[in-house]
Amino acid sequence: MKTFDYTDLNSLQELSQYLVNQCKKTNCNTILLKGELGAGKTTITQNIAIQLGVKTRVNSPTFTIAKKYTTTDNYFLNLCHYDLYRLSGKQELDELGILEEINNVKNVVVIEWPELIVKQIENYILVKLKIESRKRVANIVKIEV
């Protein structure tokens, strides 16, 4: 397990770069972000987008549930960002087509609130986020490949 304190911008960039590098190194294109409200899931995704060279603004897909961005990265062509917080079941999940995006190795897929889908995914990086006192801590607890 690797742990990051991502309270400041430099450590947030370091965490995001680590995640992108792990995806490339392990051929694993799925990052699951698990943590309480306000833990920084979308902020981490925004920094992953920066690492991948996304030129458009990355916002939380809380209401749209899914957003897809084109990257300038040579390895991953798209960043697919999902927020599953508002979903209530498997049928809604299936309608999104997340598994198809995951199966495209040219996508990096970041999923916030992954509890509904985690059992359907074989390879992923699980990041557990916590707010401790006045700092934010990310634990990379599982890299399945």
What does this structure look like?
The protein is α/β, with parallel strands linked by helices and 145 residues long. Helices cover 29% and strands 32% of the residues. Strands 1-7-6-2-5-4-3 form a seven-stranded mixed β-sheet. Helix 1 (9-26) packs across helix 2 (41-51). It is globular. The mean pLDDT is 90.
Query: Given this structure, which CATH class is correct?
Result: Alpha Beta
CATH superfamily: P-loop containing nucleotide triphosphate hydrolases
Shape: globular
Extended strand count: 7
The secondary structure category is alpha/beta
Using the 3D structure, state the CATH architecture: 3-Layer(aba) Sandwich
Q: Give me the number of helical elements.
A: 4
Q: Encode the helix/strand succession as letters.
A: EHEHEEHHEEE
Low-confidence stretches: none
Question: Could you say what the CATH topology is called?
Answer: Rossmann fold
- Across the major sheet, the strand order is 1-7-6-2-5-4-3
The main sheet comes to:
7 strands, mixed
**N-to-C CA distance:** 15 Å
Strand coverage percent: 25-35%
Radius of gyration: 14 Å
Helix proportion: 25-40%
* Average pLDDT score: 90
- The count of domains is 1
Descriptors:
alpha/beta; seven-stranded mixed β-sheet; 4 helices; globular
Write the layout of secondary structure elements.
Elements lengths: L1 E4 L3 H18 L3 E6 L5 H11 L14 E5 L7 E6 L6 H7 L1 H6 L3 E6 L11 E9 L2 E10 L1
Parallel strand pairs: 2-5, 2-6, 4-5
Antiparallel strand pairs: 1-7, 3-4, 6-7
How would you summarize what this structure contains?
The chain has 145 residues and is α/β, with parallel strands linked by helices. It contains 4 helices and 7 strands.
